[in-house]
Amino acid sequence: MSAQDEQPLKVCSHVIFALQETRRYKVISVDNHHNSSPKALERVAQIARDNLPANASEKDKDSAEIDAQTADLTKRDEIKKVFEKYGKGGIWGVIHIAAYKAVGESTEIPLTYYENNVSATVYLLQTASEFDCTRIVYSSSATVYGTPPTIPIPETTRLEAHSPYGKTKIMCETIISDLCSAEPKRWRGLSLRYFNPGGAHPSGLIGEAPIGRPGNLFPLLGAIAVGAQPNTLKVFGNDYPTPDGTCVRDYLHVLDLARGHLLALDALAPESKVFDNATSDARYKAYNLGKGKGLSVLQIIEAMRKATGFEFKYEIVGRRRGDVPDLTADPTLAEKELGFKAKEDLDTMCRDLWNWQTKNPKGYDA
Amino acid sequence: MSAQDEQPLKVCSHVIFALQETRRYKVISVDNHHNSSPKALERVAQIARDNLPANASEKDKDSAEIDAQTADLTKRDEIKKVFEKYGKGGIWGVIHIAAYKAVGESTEIPLTYYENNVSATVYLLQTASEFDCTRIVYSSSATVYGTPPTIPIPETTRLEAHSPYGKTKIMCETIISDLCSAEPKRWRGLSLRYFNPGGAHPSGLIGEAPIGRPGNLFPLLGAIAVGAQPNTLKVFGNDYPTPDGTCVRDYLHVLDLARGHLLALDALAPESKVFDNATSDARYKAYNLGKGKGLSVLQIIEAMRKATGFEFKYEIVGRRRGDVPDLTADPTLAEKELGFKAKEDLDTMCRDLWNWQTKNPKGYDA
Ligand SMILES: NC(=O)c1ccc[n+]([C@@H]2O[C@H](COP(=O)([O-])OP(=O)(O)OC[C@H]3O[C@@H](n4cnc5c(N)ncnc54)[C@H](O)[C@@H]3O)[C@@H](O)[C@H]2O)c1
Ligand SMILES: NC(=O)c1ccc[n+]([C@@H]2O[C@H](COP(=O)([O-])OP(=O)(O)OC[C@H]3O[C@@H](n4cnc5c(N)ncnc54)[C@H](O)[C@@H]3O)[C@@H](O)[C@H]2O)c1
């Protein structure tokens, strides 16, 4: 099979881990738990507490605690309450990760996607602005490149998306960019276009619970290896113009991705130089977060075989509608301007995913 | 000067006139009166009553009355109340005209535009769907063509917009199109891309009140001629690649435009053939509504001189940022499939506008 959908990965909990690791941030998590377990937050906080030095200050200790708010971003009053708690200027910046992200589902219930991803973003920006919180890092996706004309894909590629989900990402980037153009002295924004995140925190404490049959390659392989799914796998097409004919994606470790958010947040600080060479007044930019290395479906299966010791059986079937042959990032801009580098390799991603899955075969609720 | 902003024209009241003229529709108007006077509706209803035949049936008489609802489309409960009044299946279709439309303002307060134009459209579609009202005609704009590569502009031109306002129009078209793709057996939608509407109802009873200095050519000329504005006029650029060097737009009479909505509504009926040759299941299309004839700024000034007898003084100044040299529609698709034709000529537009302005120098509140 190939990877059309976004990987179910709980980017959010890994980003919180990366923020807490620095002990420079106090994290307020805002989630309606549509697709997450509050237990994930308890576990991230546990990791942070465990990592505190013996001589930790009160401030250090506080940075290990998460202010976990249950709020739905489509409800203006619920967002407002979170900001009200901290008052004007009380929140330094927002990392806006919340979204629905199933490509197929978005073609079936597009209005739900436009409401949950786009209208919610407008509310969030309006409310943040009202409380003088004018820094935002936005979770975008490689899906905004549609069928890209050049590989590896630079950020200057024209944006197009094949699904309502992908279109919501383009719309939100557009809205944030327009806001930064309208208020160049107040607002700063960065969109991070994730390529394919994989793996999990090496502790095995946080990751994604495989509920039902996962639609994505990595977790599906994990679920098969762990015995939760039958050992049958469809590889959609081996006649693509790629080295072994199967689809190629750019996988990066979710912890590398998470640390990219930290670099992005730092780049919104007053002293940052990332907007110095901008062509307009607006302090807005978009960056690819990927490794810059394409890996095929067959390469992933082989790497997961090595990591799990499990012999996967697969069958080559016809191409799947909507799949793009190759989505490999050109990651040079993020490296140059943010200092971002996806360091971990495929074997580490497989090992960490396997570690999480064997330790939590039923996810957080085991 | 040239015409970057949308013409302030009260399309809505003219569309209601066109619907009532047929006596086939009972009109429910939904407006928050952000940019309209309730008096306009009283006047339209008056025209409809005056036009009733001597032997008018009770149904005829009812069609001349408007159910005027004050509701804000950004408030879900307010939209819902309107639909609740008529119940499931009680409303046949929606003509969605409401929007903010000032190009310049949209670059200053983009979030307000995204909320009022895009989020409101999502709510409207969700609520309509809930009440089994699944036919929509949407007010789009020639601004979705940005700087078009070919003139006259066919509907197949790639969409791009230079302002947040224009982007809201593209987003709404996208959302409606995705909804029609998702539910091809339920939803039908048509977007009407208006070119430059001008004129007013020949009765002089409905039109736009010139408040402040109008940003658009037609009403500005009217306001100057009526003595409400000083006789100074800036023509932005006479070195464009157009016959006389000034910007060219495609003007059509607002009543022709309004009647286009009637044709579009009829095209959503079960027996309509407009979706027969569609390339997908989705019953969604976009049509240009224009005359297919470009007119320059200088031609408009000359036509208004003839209509008003007033000698306008103008000065040629430099080009204005964001102006596109030529926006002339290719109107053949709407003619072929909807039977639409913008019949009235420039002189009629000028005469009717002048008639409205001399009769209502202060608009509805005189
Ligand atoms: N995972 C990928 O492969 C991938 C790739 C590119 C982009 N992204 C983007 O990254 C982000 C995170 O992805 P993820 O894989 O961690 O998905 P996820 O579903 O695990 O995380 C999204 C979180 O948002 C929450 N949420 C959704 N709607 C909400 C609402 N209205 N109010 C409050 N909370 C809400 C969910 O409960 C969930 O916890 C998403 O924006 C996604 O589109 C993911
Ligand atoms: N006039 C033009 O040149 C032109 C050209 C292309 C497209 N359009 C589009 O045509 C439509 C009508 O234009 P118009 O010139 O008649 O403008 P208009 O301002 O006269 O009409 C818009 C109406 O929508 C109402 N409205 C706005 N926001 C609302 C909300 N949230 N809830 C309820 N009502 C709301 C306003 O009160 C107003 O009556 C708009 O969608 C506009 O973008 C106009």
UniProtKB/TrEMBL annotation, chains A, B:
<keyword id="KW-0413">Isomerase</keyword>
<comment type="subunit">
    <text>Homodimer.</text>
</comment>
<dbReference type="GO" id="GO:0006012">
    <property type="term" value="P:galactose metabolic process"/>
</dbReference>
<protein>
    <recommendedName>
        <fullName>UDP-glucose 4-epimerase</fullName>
        <ecNumber>5.1.3.2</ecNumber>
    </recommendedName>
</protein>
<dbReference type="Pfam" id="PF16363">
    <property type="entry name" value="GDP_Man_Dehyd"/>
</dbReference>
<dbReference type="GO" id="GO:0005829">
    <property type="term" value="C:cytosol"/>
</dbReference>
<comment type="pathway">
    <text>Carbohydrate metabolism; hexose metabolism.</text>
</comment>
<comment type="similarity">
    <text>In the N-terminal section; belongs to the NAD(P)-dependent epimerase/dehydratase family.</text>
</comment>
<comment type="pathway">
    <text>Carbohydrate metabolism; galactose metabolism.</text>
</comment>
<comment type="similarity">
    <text>In the C-terminal section; belongs to the aldose epimerase family.</text>
</comment>
<keyword id="KW-0119">Carbohydrate metabolism</keyword>
<feature type="domain" description="NAD(P)-binding">
    <location>
        <begin position="24"/>
        <end position="352"/>
    </location>
</feature>
<comment type="function">
    <text>Mutarotase converts alpha-aldose to the beta-anomer. It is active on D-glucose, L-arabinose, D-xylose, D-galactose, maltose and lactose.</text>
</comment>
<dbReference type="GO" id="GO:0003978">
    <property type="term" value="F:UDP-glucose 4-epimerase activity"/>
</dbReference>
<dbReference type="InterPro" id="IPR005886">
    <property type="entry name" value="UDP_G4E"/>
</dbReference>
<keyword id="KW-0520">NAD</keyword>
<dbReference type="InterPro" id="IPR016040">
    <property type="entry name" value="NAD(P)-bd_dom"/>
</dbReference>
<dbReference type="InterPro" id="IPR036291">
    <property type="entry name" value="NAD(P)-bd_dom_sf"/>
</dbReference>
